DNA sequence: AAGTGGTCTAGACCACGTC
DNA sequence: ACGTGGTCTAGACCACTTT
């Protein structure tokens, strides 16, 4: 698609149409399309602002504004003198971007994800609704534990549409020694853009108590997360329990 | 202060200095100064971009970029055709900006804040550290309950430096029928810019159980919040317990 | 030296709101 | 009709990185 016809004389018409969006947003969505199509992969450079401006027949400033917004959304990363890159979960700074747990004292140590189990199932009502798939559609369920300094702090049950994660198995999980999202990105080409968490307080049941090595009935955080990729498409649902004896959930409100 | 001398020939020198910041950031900090000094009050219009450009001897585009950032930070609010306004907690859309509680089902109803108690005290170690005041400095402590549809859901204990909240009393709190932050802004000229919450799971003690009408030992969210005004100055510390039987804490991760 | 993003400027035109 | 913010353009120069 080319944006040129919308310029100058035609812009007026476009502006009055109900679906009008400014040029830089059209450019933004064209860049999104290129990302979704895999034209530029996570970690790679995208073309320079000048090149994109020529490709889309707009000024460099308009491309710049589009990229500005995408950089603010953690979709692209600018590096002065080098270029603009597709954000990647393999980047150490992005690796645990969605993890809000902070140790009560001491430095922030990187957690270690220990896969426990991985099996196939059919989507129940809730999984189908949250993942926007058919009731009964094939899904993959993963159980894993997050450990900080060898200590289990988080127990997760993760629901994935099998269509997008073909080939995922306990062996694959065990052979990966980095974050889950970096595995998802590298192996399945899925980049997580944003997530939404619902947090409640619950009492530890027998299983959770054993897993996190706390007493039965200990209050835990229940954290439900739905994670979205490009186009606000949900691709992961996880239910976790967090022990908050040595850690807390930190949230910045802006 | 005038920025003109930094332009053109002198810019180079400034750029090489260790404290260099781009022009639009200098403008941003000048606008911050005007806000802190009370030159423009919450809810009011600030001068137009053209006027500010003339005042600071920069181009309109540079002022625009400064305002862009402040609008993204919820410090200013743009309204096309009308002007740029100082964000206010009296604005219905900002009133419960920091409250992340959402009902399990049904529409989002506005909570009602019921003050319970208000007394003077001296800052303990933790309050002094978090509020960045002297140990033993005078503070005000407020207890209140947040109710949704007449049902108590949150119990808060709020610690305020008395120096900034002179005259606050239970009567003042009871005579105010809007959000606490809108009271703080209107009565004490304090606008909250950002906050940080630490969340843990705890068991309800006797007092909390009675207050929130749940069983003794029910798991609750413990939410500690420090709230900051201009210049990252902490002005409020609150410790709350949230019942998550009919509500949950919703967090958007970006 | 050449290429990239980062800043700053100046001017044109559009959309929205008020008078 | 006028003033406000919103968009788009074009061009200059700076800072960082690589060749």
For the record, the count of structural domains of chain A works out to: 2
Instruction: Give me the CATH fold name of the largest domain in chain A.
Output: Chorismate lyase
Strand order of the largest sheet of chain A: 5-6-7-10-9-8
CATH architecture of the largest domain in chain A: 3-Layer(aba) Sandwich
- Give the N-to-C terminal Cα separation of chain A: 37 Å
Task: Report the count of strand segments of chain A.
Answer: 11
Task: Lay out the secondary structure.
Two copies of one chain form a homodimer.
Chain A: H1 9-16, H2 23-36, E1 45-46, H3 49-56, H4 60-72, E2 76-79, E3 83-86, E4 101-103, E5 112-122, H5 125-131, E6 138-148, E7 151-161, H6 170-174, H7 180-188, E8 194-203, H8 206-212, E9 219-229, E10 233-242, E11 247-253
Antiparallel strand pairs in A: 1-3, 2-3, 4-11, 5-6, 6-7, 7-10, 8-9, 9-10
Helix pairs in contact in A: 2-4, 3-4
Chain A binds a DNA duplex (19 and 19 nucleotides) through helix 1 and helix 4.
Structure overview:
Two copies of one chain form a homodimer. The first copy, chain A, has eight helices and eleven strands. The first copy, chain A, is α+β, with helices and mostly antiparallel strands. Chain A folds into two domains: 4-86, Arc Repressor Mutant, subunit A, CATH 1.10.10.10; 101-249, Chorismate lyase-like (Chorismate lyase, 3-Layer(aba) Sandwich), CATH 3.40.1410.10. Chain A has a six-stranded antiparallel sheet with strand order 5-6-7-10-9-8. A three-stranded antiparallel sheet of chain A has the order 1-3-2. In chain A, helix 2 packs across helix 4 and helix 3 (49-56) packs across helix 4 (60-72). The first copy, chain A, is globular. The relative contact order of chain A is 0.12. Residues 1-14 of chain A have low confidence and may be disordered. Chain A binds a DNA duplex (19 and 19 nucleotides) through helix 1 and helix 4.
């Amino acid at each position: 698609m080319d944006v040129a016809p919308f310029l100058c004389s035609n812009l007026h018409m476009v502006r009055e149409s109900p679906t009008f969006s400014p040029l830089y947003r059209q450019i933004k969505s064209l860049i999104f399309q290129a990302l979704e199509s895999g034209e530029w992969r996570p970690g790679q450079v995208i073309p320079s602002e000048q090149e994109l401006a020529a490709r889309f027949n707009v000024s460099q400033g308009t491309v710049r504004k589009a990229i500005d917004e995408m950089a603010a959304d953690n979709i692209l990363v600018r590096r002065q003198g080098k270029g603009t890159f597709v954000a990647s979960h393999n980047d150490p700074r992005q690796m645990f971007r969605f993890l809000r747990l902070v140790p009560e004292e001491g430095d922030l140590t990187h957690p270690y994800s220990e896969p426990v189990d991985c099996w196939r199932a059919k989507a129940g009502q809730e999984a189908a609704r949250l993942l926007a798939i058919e009731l009964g559609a094939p899904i993959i369920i993963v159980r894993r534990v997050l450990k900080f300094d060898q200590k289990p702090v988080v127990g997760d049950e993760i629901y994935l549409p099998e269509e997008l994660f073909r080939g995922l198995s306990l062996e694959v999980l065990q052979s990966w020694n980095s974050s889950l999202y970096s595995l998802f990105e590298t192996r399945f080409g899925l980049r997580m853009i944003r997530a939404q968490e619902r947090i409640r307080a619950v009492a530890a049941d027998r299983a959770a108590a054993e897993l996190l090595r706390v007493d039965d009935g200990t209050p835990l955080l229940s954290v439900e997360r739905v994670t979205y990729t490009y186009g606000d498409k949900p691709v992961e649902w996880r239910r976790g329990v967090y022990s908050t004896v040595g850690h807390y959930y930190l949230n910045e409100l802006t």
